[in-house]
């Protein structure tokens, strides 16, 4: 009986070793991926956050404008005298120029998020340029200003995309990795609030979406809690351009 029991010990040890190696390799992959991302951001000068020394936070909204939700978000921002940055889709901006006009006159910043929200990395250079320029033209037509901010759809980019943005004098802006609220998946108002408030730090760029096909945009309910709470903590809400000064 005892012989049989001890016979299994080498097997158990081997299994344990395999599990430990598996864990180490997985963690090494995570660490490597993190540093590769950091190196990539340095190579391309991608914006993920602002200064960690100043108590500023930037609220950003993608995919809009939406005829209902964007207006409701603007009402909340106005109530608290808070400024934000909206990375618009050209096709939506073309449809709702009055909302772009309101965003502009109320002191918010407009950035480019492409025209059709396609994965630009898979496109020919002429398509990428058109996605960029068509949206830029819409912003300039409404505001009289050229946007210097670009956020690629899905946060995916390559050298060609970066070069096009750079040659147009723009900044590639993503978001602080732990401030991706994933609100597009409707995780619940409480979950969105938890993601933002539990990790808020100086210089954060928070990712929201003002355009949502759901019957209710959960960001609206979340903002009513997030904004006053962060103001109470002493944070100032700024546009991306202000964050980068």
From TrEMBL:
Q: Which PROSITE patterns match?
A: NODB (PS51677)
| Keyword annotations from UniProtKB, A to Z | Hydrolase, Membrane, Metal-binding, Transmembrane, Transmembrane helix
What residues form the membrane-spanning segments?
12-35
Instruction: Give GO cellular component annotations, separated by semicolons.
Output: membrane
- Keyword presence, Transmembrane: yes
SUPFAM superfamilies membership: Glycoside hydrolase/deacetylase (SSF88713)
GO terms for biological process, alphabetical: carbohydrate metabolic process
Gene Ontology MF annotations: hydrolase activity, acting on carbon-nitrogen (but not peptide) bonds; metal ion binding
Among the Pfam families in the record, one is Polysacc_deac_1
Q: Which residues form the NodB homology domain?
A: 55-238
The name of this protein is Polysaccharide deacetylase family sporulation protein PdaB
Organism, scientific name: Proteiniborus ethanoligenes
> Source taxonomy lineage?
Bacteria, Bacillati, Bacillota, Clostridia, Eubacteriales
